[in-house]
Amino acid sequence: MIIDTHSHVNFNAFKDDADLVVKKTLSENIQIINVGTKYETSKSAVGMAEKYEQGVFASIGLHPMYSASEFIKIKTDPNEEEFLIQENEFDKEKYRDLAKSKKVLAIGEIGLDYYYKPKTALKLQQFKEKQKRIFNEQLDLAKELNLPVILHCRVAHDDVIEILKRRGEKRGVIHCFTGSLEQAKKYIEMGFYIGINGIIFKFNIDEVIKEVSLENILVETDCPYLTPPTAEEKRNQPIFIKHTIKKIAELKNVSFEKVCEKTTENAKNLFLI
Ligand SMILES: [Zn+2]
Q1: Do 147 and 116 contact (CB within 8 A), yes or no?
Q2: What is the pLDDT of residues 203-230, one digit of tens each?
């Protein structure tokens, strides 16, 4: 069995064939955690998970790209949803309500994202502070509900690590990891897993994959994004997780099965599946 610990079959990119994609995925013995990026996509992740008796789960949260969106111009992503609903405050009550579903296994994707940023120093400071405040509010909710977190981080690892350390956080995964080996070690020391997906075909983190133990790795697709170049289709989907697993197995010089077995065990341990 394989668990795709970070997918978005709840997104608009799958609006015409989500059920087909899910059924195909489950028939190949792959389970899915669909991750929300705001209230609407969190709600659709929960709705999709509720439709299936087993193998489909949800994570809910507000992505850092949106949490301080008044400071930057963000483009509508048609893959995500048709109408971009502005959501730049975290309404804890609404998410707490969604978390009543037994299928909600985590809070995420949450974190910090400084990739698109405002130009003036003052605005940049306010932008970072707002993201940090909303990140903390969501970490509080995870603590209250006793759920692990799925972290998103771009060009902000030092700040994310500082916040997690200060709060004594220890349950979660740093999704789509592209940081340094030193940063990976800091996350692992705190108890976090390193999430590996198809970005490894674009962005060289071979050293991290070789050095980090399989005990600390989770696998994911982040579909519909980050399609492995060897996949049969342009749109990524959970079954293409095999391409990433194959590359991890090659780099670590272990069997494909070994990577499946260990990373599935890790996912079960973290998300209590
Ligand atoms: Zn994602």
Answers
A1: no
A2: 999 999 999 999 999 999 999 999 999 9
Which residue, 6, 32, 43, 1, is CA-closest to 193?
A: 6
C-alpha of residue 8 to centroid of ligand 1, in Å: 7
Low-confidence spans in the chain with pLDDT less than 70: 82-85
With 0.85 as the threshold, say if the pTM is over it: yes
Question: Count of H helices and E strands in the chain?
Answer: 10, 8
CA 229 to centroid of ligand 1, rounded, Å? 18
What is the CATH topology of the domain spanning 2-271?
TIM Barrel (3.20.20)
CA 233 – ligand 1 centroid, Å:
19
- Residue pair 56/31 in contact (Cβ under 8 Å)? The answer is yes
d(CA 219, CA 268): 12
Residue 128 CA to residue 117 CA, distance in Å, equals 9
CA–centroid distance, 241 to ligand 1, in Å, is 14
